[in-house]
């Protein structure tokens, strides 16, 4: 946004210089036309005075004025050429600044769209994280209830000593395996005796 503002200011400055140059060009063209009119008027005056007695004196004066006017015209034409070149250069700079401004607007718009997309993705991830946490808490709660029931079933049987401290998963598994093995041995013993 700062680059855009800087480019916009440069564009306004260049356009202002371009307008001044065009105005100066018009002024120089007007002055050139006035000088040309003066030159034609002086030529007409010269023609009218040609038949008079002081022809040579007036001729010299008019020639001096003509020389002066030609010099002024040459200077004005030179200035006009410089102004035309300046206008061309300024126009090129203005066009370049406009192109840069359009390019910067495109990049800013592209960055805004990318930022909005990232924001949407972040919100989606946050929602998924919340859902995952809720599901994890639910699974953890079910696991704890299931583990508690296993411990109750394992150590709640006759002859089992209730645990004195918190049990690890390995200790619970060993106790369950012991009960299973005892049931298998009892079942084998019943089969050997012929009891169904």
Give the arrangement of secondary structure elements.
Blueprint: H1 2-49, H2 55-155, H3 169-192
Can you give keywords for this protein?
single chain; 196 residues; coiled coil; CC-FHA_domain; 88% helix; CCD27 protein; 0% strand; 2 domains
What's this entry about, in short?
This protein is mainly α and 196 residues long. Helices cover 88% and strands 0% of the residues. The chain is built from 3 helices and no strands.
Q: What do these coordinates show?
A:
There is one protein chain. With 196 residues, this protein is mostly helical. The protein has two domains: 3-113; 125-193. It is built from three helices and no strands. It has helices at residues 2-49, 55-155, 169-192. The longest helix has 101 residues, at 55-155. It is rod-shaped, with a radius of gyration of 52 Å. The chain starts with a helix and ends with a helix. Residues 11-45, 80-131 form a coiled coil. It comes from Chauna torquata (Southern screamer). InterPro entries: CC-FHA_domain. Keywords: Coiled coil. This is CCD27 protein.
């Amino acid at each position: 946004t700062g680059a855009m503002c800087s480019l916009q200011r440069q564009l306004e400055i260049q356009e202002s210089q371009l307008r001044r140059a065009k105005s100066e060009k018009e002024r120089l063209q007007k002055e050139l036309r006035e000088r040309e009119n003066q030159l034609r008027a002086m030529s007409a005056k010269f023609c009218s005075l040609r038949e008079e007695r002081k022809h040579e004196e007036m001729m010299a004066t008019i020639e001096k004025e003509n020389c002066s006017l030609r010099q002024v015209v040459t200077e004005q034409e030179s200035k006009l050429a410089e102004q035309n070149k300046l206008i061309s250069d300024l126009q090129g700079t203005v066009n370049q600044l406009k192109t840069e401004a359009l390019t910067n607007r495109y990049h800013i718009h592209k960055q805004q769209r990318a930022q909005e997309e990232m924001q949407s993705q972040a919100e989606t991830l946050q929602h998924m994280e919340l859902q995952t946490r809720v599901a994890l808490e639910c699974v953890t709660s079910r696991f704890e209830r299931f583990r508690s029931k296993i411990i109750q079933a394992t150590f709640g049987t006759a002859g089992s000593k209730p645990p004195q401290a918190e049990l690890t998963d390995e200790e619970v598994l060993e106790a369950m395996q012991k009960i299973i093995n005892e049931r298998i041995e009892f079942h084998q013993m019943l089969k050997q005796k012929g009891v169904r």
